[in-house]
Backbone:
DNA sequence: TAGATTGTTAATCGATTAACAATC
DNA sequence: TAGATTGTTAATCGATTAACAATC
């Protein structure tokens, strides 16, 4: 596997490839050509070959790609067998739904703690984890060393809390608050999810016609 | 407002501009230069000027952009004052959270019905709407003509249900099922949201270093 | 007027597509 | 071997950046 730098657009396509290859595997398809896969995924065959070549020639001329092997390679690149420890902060509607709905394990992560500032929630269970009060955050982080946090908190609290978490050693954020985190330290990874932006884009496309 | 075609990358940036301009307005900033805004948003000033010029010169040389006016223009383009009627299908964890958490009104949409196949949920309230059984979907659509649907259903049900909804007259989908909808009709708008892909990308970036 | 900052054109950069020789 | 399909280079396309004249 050549150690080239993989460009952002390619990385963002990897999870999608991984999903489609998983579907093919479930359909017991053993091999697939770039042309066929392109058709399924709505991409060009050329792009698929370019993408797969970023991490070494995994196809065979005249044959195509071995579905299972290719999926494993992509899974390895994405690190699906890892167990990045994560915490979730803000156990409101959305926080609980994410804790329950997203399969962290399948994606190389593990949710090890859930926190909420509302003391009434303390002790109640979500996704087989007890919700903990914010007062215990510091000691929990010192003890269990989570690497990243899911932020499901109001936007006004996000920036300050993120900075605090950075000081506690966290290096990644999956941010659902309606606020673009800006962390000065470039080593900190931020994945902002803006559901509202997504809905607005859909709404735009709907009247645009 | 010139009627040029606005490219997809620009459209996808509009909601973000809209948010930042909203923040500036809240901070009572009246005008802002492309340079200042660029700094705040982590973009280049050049890109901002290019983007804003897609829909007509709204700046003033030597002065910058009037925050309130610019925000209104972008809001108009995005159609925030519209009321696209939408339904939500699948009132599980995620469906309920989206119904409760996403502010449809602020984004030009209105959630007018929630459906779930579990008869036990029928009648219970979510986001001040009663959950309705799937049996009533047809007549509801005929009567209230929703234009788009939020799909919070398992991936195996997604494709079939989407096709049914198209036959009932819906033309847009905000799809949270772990499946890329493929609608043959190009007039149908699909916005696939893959939270899992987003998490995997974060996880990748975390070990990549 | 002088200073600032846009609107807009031209240059650059990067990503996608096309083409085809290599090879299974 | 012949057919298929990759790996890879070159061509194209589009988006971003740079530059600067226009103008408030």
Residues:
């Amino acid at each position: 596997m050549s150690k080239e730098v993989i460009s952002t657009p390619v990385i963002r396509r990897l999870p999608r490839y991984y999903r489609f290859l998983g579907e093919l595997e479930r359909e017991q398809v053993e091999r697939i050509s770039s042309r066929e896969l392109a058709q399924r995924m709505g991409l060009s065959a050329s792009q698929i070959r370019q993408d797969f070549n970023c991490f070494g020639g995994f196809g065979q001329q005249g044959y195509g790609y071995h579905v299972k092997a290719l999926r494993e390679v992509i899974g390895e690149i994405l690190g699906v067998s890892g167990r990045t420890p994560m915490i979730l902060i803000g156990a409101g509607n959305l926080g609980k739904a994410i804790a329950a709905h997203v399969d962290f394990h399948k994606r190389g992560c593990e949710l090890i703690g859930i926190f909420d500032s509302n003391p009434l929630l303390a002790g109640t269970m979500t996704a087989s984890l007890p919700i903990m009060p914010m007062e215990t955050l510091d000691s929990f982080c010192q003890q269990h060393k989570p690497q990243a946090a899911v932020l499901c908190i109001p936007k006004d609290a996000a920036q300050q809390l993120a900075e605090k978490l950075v000081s506690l050693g966290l290096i990644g954020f999956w941010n659902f608050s309606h606020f673009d985190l800006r962390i000065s330290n470039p080593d900190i990874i931020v994945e902002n999810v803006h559901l509202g932006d997504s809905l607005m884009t859909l709404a735009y496309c709907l009247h645009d016609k």
The beta strands of chain B are 31-32, 59-60, 64-66, 84-89, 109-116, 125-126, 129-133, 148-151, 172-175, 189-192.
